[in-house]
Amino acid sequence: MGATAGVDLTTEICGIELAHPVLNGSGTFDAIAARRAFGDEIIARFPFSAFVSKTITPEPRAGNPPPRLYETPSGMINSIGLPNKGLEGFLSEDLPALAGLPVPLCVSVMATSADGFRRLVDGVGARDEVAAIELNVSCPNVESGLIVGEQPSEVERLMEAIRPLTAKPVIVKLTPNVADPAPIALAAQDAGADAVSLINTVRALALDPVTQEPWLGGGGGGLSGPAIRALALDQVRRVAAAVSIPIIGMGGIESGADALGFLAAGASAVAVGTATFREPMAAERIRSELALARAPATASGRDSRPEKAPDGTTALWTSS
Ligand code: RRO
Predict the structure, then answer these.
(1) Which of 56, 76, 82 to mutate to test the pocket of ligand 1 (most atoms within 8 A of CB)?
(2) Whose CA is nearest to atom 1 of ligand 1?
(3) Nearest C-alpha to atom 10 of ligand 1 is from which residue?
(4) Residue 271 Cα, ligand 1 centroid: separation in angstroms?
(5) How many domains does the chain fold into?
(6) Does pLDDT of 91 surpass 70?
(7) 222 lines ligand 1 (CB under 6 A)
(8) Comparing 165-169, 194-198, 257-261, 310-314, which segment has the lowest mean pLDDT?
(9) Is 80's C-beta closer than 6 angstroms to any atom of ligand 1?
(10) Distance from Cα 83 to the centre of ligand 1, integer Å
(11) CATH number where 245 lies
(12) Which helix (DSSP H) or strand (DSSP E) does residue 181 occupy?
């Protein structure tokens, strides 16, 4: 029997039962393309406990001009620009395929107006295949200038506009591009959000070394990967101190130890994104490492079980 047999990683978020706490970050794993490439093996070995779709918008979008990705020390800048088929295309073409995944489906939505968000929540919320909706109020790659998620009052107004439209859990995806994300998380909670997820990418710029012009086709972009992990961890901890709704924590998670850190900082679940680009089954490995860390000392060979410290915080690696 393996060292992790019998280790219970089951997790519940907003009433949704998950086999373990490792999800994907929106837009970082194309489940439809993966199934086309790897067949049913990817279904049998699906690495995430819930699947969060790439963000969709009311109308189709082509996305930003190339190049769209830039590698940085310990990270990556993306300027993808929300390419998607729009609400109708998603519902008719992608949703049936995503509904065949063996885990609950969360659809990520984004619009540039409250009316657009209403359309999306109405359309997606009416579908039984959808377990939850993520409101992306934090994409760094939109041209409108105003990012709803940077203002608590805007987040509150938006949540109040869409809350009556669906009984499904609504998760608000927060931006790290503010001095303090806690007031924004609180505004989301007060207006009826069921959970928050954080962080989205950190606004960033790469320059062409010859021309000194922006290297990415869209101009700037969003930084992700281990480069932002410490920042993400701090923001998760700040938000956890402010809200009582569950938190899905993400930002440069690459190992079970990283995931444990986010859980200790107050997240109920974690998401893996950039690591998946280099290692498509990274989430499976991270889940195994998490299980090993939670396995009894005698089975894992070392005592790495998280324990409650006397002050109620979780100690990551405890000595026996
Ligand atoms: O598509 C994107 O460019 C994108 C999105 Br929607 C997002 O939420 N975060 C990000 O870094 N890129």
Answers:
(1) 82
(2) 82
(3) 139
(4) 15
(5) 1
(6) yes
(7) yes
(8) 310-314
(9) yes
(10) 9
(11) 3.20.20.70
(12) none
- Residue 120 backbone dihedrals phi, psi, to 5 degrees: -65, -45
Answer whether residue 24 is part of any domain: yes
- Asked if residue 312 belongs to a domain, the reply is no
- Listed residue (318, 294, 282) closest to 45, CA to CA: 282
Atom nearest to 221 CA in ligand 1: 11
Question: Would you say residue 192 has pLDDT above 80?
Answer: yes
Q: How far is 319 from 276, CA to CA, in rounded Å?
A: 32
The pLDDT score that the predictor gives to residue 5 is 74
Question: Domain limits at 94?
Answer: 2-60+79-203+221-299
Is the beta carbon of 136 within 6 A of some atom in ligand 1?
yes
Report pLDDT digits (tens) over 39-73: 999 999 999 999 999 999 999 999 999 999 999 99
Residue 282 falls inside a structural domain: yes
Specify if 110 maps to a domain. yes
Cα–Cα distance list, 237 to 117, 182, 229, 266, 304 (Å)? 29, 9, 12, 6, 22
pLDDT band at 302 (very low <50, low <70, confident <90, very high): low
Q: Is pLDDT above 60 for 309?
A: no
230-266 CB burial, b ≥16 within 10 A, e <16: eebbebbbbbbebbebbbbbbbbbbbbebbbbbbbbb
- Annotated catalytic, 106? no
> What pLDDT is attached to residue 310?
42
Ligand 1 close to Cβ of residue 201 (< 6 A): yes
**Ligand 1 atom with minimal separation from the 55 CA:** 6
Provide mean pLDDT across the span 269-276: 98
pLDDT at position 298, please?
A: 55
